[in-house]
Design goal:
2 copies of one chain form a homodimer. Chain A is α/β, with parallel strands linked by helices. Chain A is built from 10 helices and 11 strands. Chain A folds into 3 domains: 5-88, Winged helix-like DNA-binding domain superfamily/Winged helix DNA-binding domain (Arc Repressor Mutant, subunit A, Orthogonal Bundle), CATH 1.10.10.10; 93-160 and 277-300, Periplasmic binding protein-like II (D-Maltodextrin-Binding Protein, domain 2), CATH 3.40.190; 165-268, Periplasmic binding protein-like II (D-Maltodextrin-Binding Protein, domain 2), CATH 3.40.190. Chain A is 42% helix and 21% strand. In chain A, the strands form 2 sheets. In chain A, strands 1, 2, 3, 4, 5, 8, 9, 10 and 11 form a 9-stranded mixed β-sheet that branches. In chain A, strands 6-7 form a two-stranded parallel sheet. Chain A is rod-shaped. Chain A binds a DNA duplex through residues 6, 19-21, 29-37, 39-40, 52-55.
Chain lengths: 307, 307
DNA sequence: CCAAAAACATGAATTCTTCTCATGTTGACG
DNA sequence: CGTCAACATGAGAAGAATTCATGTTTTTGG
């Protein structure tokens, strides 16, 4: 490949200015340099780009062809360059997020709505991680931030920033016999139907931190993708479900459900934002984390500041 | 503009090969060169393109952005380069034509149909020159070949290649009183309606070489864009028209029209292909001219070889 | 877990490219 | 037909990219 962006920009300048001399000065080179450049191009492709010894300048078909190419390519490259430049100073970037915790959707959306107008240059995306494991994806660079309650085996190069603490509650129908209890033991669930989000048990706190250690399995399991569906099923006494306290609180009034502590002292979790070490310190990343932590602790009922 | 096609190609190779060393060898440079290149890019934009000290290679969002750019741009440039290369050796090029002589359409189309399959790489176009003057357009580079019967005031840099000779005839209705004549004088047209293509009189042989020199004007003028329309009008005795002998011959059988010589010895013209000097010698140009000259002289009734 | 290998990084020297300078040619215009 | 502006060209200077030699890090296979 002989052709160079320098050549294309030169052609563009020549077309805009109408002659070599002026084009050269807008490009901040001498007329001689331009002349050499063109000669080299023409020699290389063995075809003239202009009709020589003729003024005003006239382009050959080959020249027009190259000019057309320049018109396509140069602006595209310039756009990419300026985008990259502002990536460097942290004003712009990509913030593709994934949530491991499904009910996080509920508080994340309002946070995103506040973030977006303040950082309009940031390319936002949010995925639920149904079909991939968020943390490896973060490591690979497919996503840039993961909301998780499980600072898992360090893949290396990841930073976990605590956002806030919340309590996992067991949602039961008010009609359920369990509803009268103050708190629940793992054994209480041995004859219950447990309704969860459709992910593997290891990624659900109620399994990994409550039932698992006690060696208990629920009588049945079924899944629901959306929190509303899950709440509906519980209200109809079709089963019980573990929900963060803030999520449960939203539905408590409308549906006849009740929240019970898991264990005597309750099952508390901390939610983290995981980012790659390299991204820590980028203005738009830190701004998001700060917003998520502070705003959420203020506005979500029932959550406590992290630590 | 710092970014260079070399950088984009390097990124593409790295993506294809998955590591610097192999990418370097496909690019025929050392691994060191690639490493320097990447370092320079990252320094310039002040943002990493890869996650360092990690294998397999992982791209940062910024890197992915640049890679995306490379994917768009590099193939486009490569296409343009190879097109240009084959322009150089005359196998490919642009052959935009304009005809000054309107009835030329009739013989040009079959010629083009023969030319096209033999030179599939040549970009063909044909315009009738209603709205511009073909020869200046040829000079400017807007078109590449002009069919004209008037090797006019040399603009410099144009070559006129004679194609063939033909006779201009006056088409009259068989019902017309003129139809009995062997040949026509300019004065005979003083009380006639003359039907022409819609171009200025100077570009019509019957004015510039027959009526003009004799100082005669037809009683009326009207125009028709298509030869069939023109023939129709003549057949209905709504006027007379000057037509090349080959064009007239085609309609003579169907419509009741008759062709008369203009002047005792007839009005003979030579048709030329005008090209820029630079294009003379290009394989695809010369091939077209040869085809137009030879095939037409053989197949068109009534035309004579040039000279 | 260690050693060997593969991949990557880096500084200095070299090679190559591209630019400028000085000057010669050519074309346009009065 | 002479003058001016635009373009061309060769030689040398400036600068950029590459290589070479070598050091560091990561992976892999025993």
């Amino acid at each position: 490949m002989f052709l160079d962006l320098r050549h294309l920009r030169a052609l563009l300048a020549i077309h805009e200015q109408g002659n070599l001399s002026q084009a050269a000065s807008t490009l901040h080179v001498t007329q001689s340099a331009l002349s050499h450049q063109l000669r080299a191009l023409e020699n290389h492709f063995d075809t003239p780009l202009f009709f020589r010894r003729s003024r005003p300048l006239r382009w050959t078909p080959a020249g027009q062809q190259l000019l057309e190419l320049a018109r396509h390519i140069v602006p595209e490259v310039e756009r990419a360059e300026s985008a990259l430049r502002s990536t460097g100073d942290g004003q712009q970037g990509r913030l593709h997020m994934a949530v491991e915790c499904h009910s996080c959707f509920e508080w994340l959306m309002p946070t995103l709505d506040r973030y977006r107008p303040e950082w309009p240059q940031v390319e936002l995306d949010l995925s639920m991680g149904f079909s991939f494991h968020p943390l490896p994806a973060l490591y690979r660079g497919d996503v840039d931030l993961v909301i998780t309650s499980d600072p898992e085996a360090d893949l290396g190069g990841l930073t976990y920033v605590p956002l806030f603490r919340y309590e996992m509650l067991l949602a039961v129908a008010r009609a359920s016999p369990l509803a009268t209890r103050d708190w629940i033991t793992p054994a209480d669930l041995a004859d219950q139907t447990l309704i969860t989000y459709p992910v593997c048990p290891e990624r659900l706190d109620i399994f990994s931190r409550f039932l698992g250690p006690a060696g208990v399995e629920p009588a049945q399991r079924r899944t629901a993708e959306l929190t509303v569906m899950l709440v509906q099923l519980v209200a109809n006494n079709r089963g019980v479900a573990a929900l963060p306290n803030w999520a449960l609180r939203e539905y408590q009034d409308q549906a006849s459900i009740h929240g019970l502590a898991l264990g005597e002292s309750g099952l508390w979790s901390t939610l983290y934002a995981a980012v790659r070490n390299e991204d820590r310190g980028k203005a738009y990343v830190d701004a998001f984390i700060r917003l998520a932590r502070d705003r959420t602790a203020e506005t979500l009922p029932g959550v406590l500041p992290a630590r």
